[in-house]
């Protein structure tokens, strides 16, 4: 659980079948273009999240704001998923993706509160030493958001589906970005 000036966020494991219809509406929304599922049908979303649920090194979660679904979070081990062979992983590296649900009534600072809640969740595990992300190089909004919570861009990498900006955030960098003495 993470409490901010915007409210309380909780995170629960995603239920691939129960949550698929909701996820489908999020991942096919025009604002989710970087999620690369714009043309997905409901069965495609169900299959993708069933695949993730069955994977030993990849997990999906539904984030709630004040008890209502508000974002999707994926956590993965970059030694086995997404970044295999694209960088030298270190012990305690955890990969992350997040997607904020589309809304007609945006709340100022909401997306930053979401990524902060996601990072709180990841660093709640004492084994997590560094969070790794690989957003599309053209996604300037997420680069700025990542940097605001402590991520440091390292280099561009070529993934099969995109050119990505590999970035890292240690626990100390995250705490410093939040203004917590380290």
Automatic annotation (TrEMBL):
Residues 12-59 form the Acyltransferase MbtK/IucB-like conserved domain. Signal peptide: none annotated. SMART domains: AlcB. Pathway: Siderophore biosynthesis; mycobactin biosynthesis. Transmembrane segments: none annotated. One of its GO terms (molecular function) is acyltransferase activity. Keywords: Acyltransferase, Transferase. It comes from the Bacteria. InterPro entries: Acyl_CoA_acyltransferase, Acyltransferase_MbtK/IucB-like. Acyltransferase required for the direct transfer of medium- to long-chain fatty acyl moieties from a carrier protein (MbtL) on to the epsilon-amino group of lysine residue in the mycobactin core. This is Lysine N-acyltransferase MbtK. The lineage of its organism: Bacteria, Bacillati, Actinomycetota, Actinomycetes, Kitasatosporales.
């Amino acid at each position: 659980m993470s409490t901010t000036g915007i409210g309380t966020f909780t995170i629960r494991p995603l239920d691939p079948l129960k949550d698929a219809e909701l996820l489908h509406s999020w991942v096919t929304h025009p604002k989710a273009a970087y999620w690369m599922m714009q043309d997905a049908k409901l069965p495609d979303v169900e299959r993708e999240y069933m695949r993730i649920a069955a994977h030993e090194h990849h997990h999906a979660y539904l984030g709630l704001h004040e008890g209502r679904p508000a974002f999707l979070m994926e956590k993965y081990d970059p030694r086995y998923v997404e970044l295999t062979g694209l960088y030298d992983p270190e012990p305690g590296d955890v990969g992350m993706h997040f997607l904020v649900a589309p809304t007609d009534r945006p709340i100022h600072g909401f997306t930053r509160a979401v990524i902060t809640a996601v990072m709180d969740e990841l660093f709640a595990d004492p084994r997590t030493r560094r969070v790794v992300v690989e957003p599309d190089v053209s996604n300037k909004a997420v680069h700025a958001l990542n940097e605001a919570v402590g991520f440091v861009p390292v280099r561009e990498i070529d993934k099969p589906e995109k050119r990505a900006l590999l970035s890292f955030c240690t626990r100390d960098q995250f705490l410093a970005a939040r203004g917590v003495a380290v």
